[in-house]
């Protein structure tokens, strides 16, 4: 098994921030479908929303996740979100998600690790792109062996096959495979453990780049 077989990339409960996680956490608190949150957030008075976030019994997990200590902190987060909407034209949900993440990263104990994971995600995506250019020259399809060279185990590879919808066990067209890679990192945990695992993935790809640099072997010849 490869590293990625131990990671659930599509579960918002394993999220590392962003709009998807904010929507997953806010929707039940506001009794609103995730795709209707923009409209709901635009209607609800800031004072009421601050009270829900800082005092609501069902918001305890959200308060822990985003390090919301009290009503003043909630009001500051909402003010920052409103400013993003007013100045930049951001949608209410996206603005609130950004404000929540900014606040959490400023005050929560794991902020340094979170910043390191964000940087590591960018490095890994770049390394994946370079490795794909070596492994799949000319847009060759990606089979399970090629996915393993990127650190992706069978479980994740099959989940990508199911999403792309080509066949149940691949191969996957290179463009479709490449487009799915950022999604794998969307919910990566912004924790020291998350950093250690993503650095391990970087080492797998680095080994692949070093191995593939001498000779490019077409996928068909690898079987």
Biggest sheet details: none
Question: Approximately how much beta-strand content do the residues carry?
Answer: under 5%
Radius of gyration: 20 Å
Helix content estimate: 55-70%
Mean of all residue-level pLDDT scores: 80
Weakly predicted, low-confidence segments: 5-15, 214-223
Number of strands: 0
Tell me the count of domains: 2
Global structural class? mainly alpha
Count of discrete alpha- or pi-helical segments spanning 4 or more residues: 11
Write down the secondary-structure element order.
HHHHHHHHHHH
| Euclidean distance between termini CA atoms | 19 Å
Give the overall shape: elongated
Fold and architecture overview:
This protein is mainly α. The protein has two domains: about 15-105; about 110-220, no CATH class. Helix content is about 65%, strand content about 0%. The chain is built from eleven helices and no strands. It has helices at about 20-30, 35-45, 45-55, 60-65, 70-90, 90-105, 110-135, 145-150, 155-165, 175-185, 190-210. Helix 1 packs across helix 6 (about 90-105). The radius of gyration is 20 Å and the shape is elongated. The model is unreliable at about 5-15 and about 215-223 (pLDDT under 50).
């Amino acid at each position: 098994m490869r590293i990625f077989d131990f990671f659930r990339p599509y579960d918002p409960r394993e999220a590392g921030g962003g709009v998807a996680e904010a929507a997953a956490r806010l929707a039940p608190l506001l009794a609103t479908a995730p795709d209707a949150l923009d409209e709901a957030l635009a209607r609800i008075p800031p004072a009421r929303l601050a009270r829900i976030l800082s005092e609501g019994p069902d918001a305890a997990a959200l308060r822990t996740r985003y390090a919301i200590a009290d009503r003043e902190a909630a009001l500051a987060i909402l003010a920052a979100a409103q400013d993003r909407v007013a100045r930049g034209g951001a949608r209410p949900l996206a603005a609130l998600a950004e404000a929540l993440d900014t606040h959490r990263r400023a005050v929560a104990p794991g902020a340094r690790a979170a910043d390191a994971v964000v940087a590591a995600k960018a490095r890994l995506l770049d390394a994946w792109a370079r490795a794909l250019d070596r492994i799949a020259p000319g847009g060759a399809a990606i089979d399970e062996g090629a996915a393993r060279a990127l650190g992706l185990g069978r479980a994740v590879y099959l989940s990508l096959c199911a999403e792309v919808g080509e066949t149940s066990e691949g191969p996957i067209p290179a463009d479709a495979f490449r487009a799915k890679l950022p999604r794998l990192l969307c919910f990566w945990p912004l924790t020291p453990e998350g950093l250690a695992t993503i650095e391990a993935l970087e080492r797998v790809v680095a080994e692949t780049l070093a191995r593939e640099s001498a000779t490019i072997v077409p996928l068909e010849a690898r079987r």
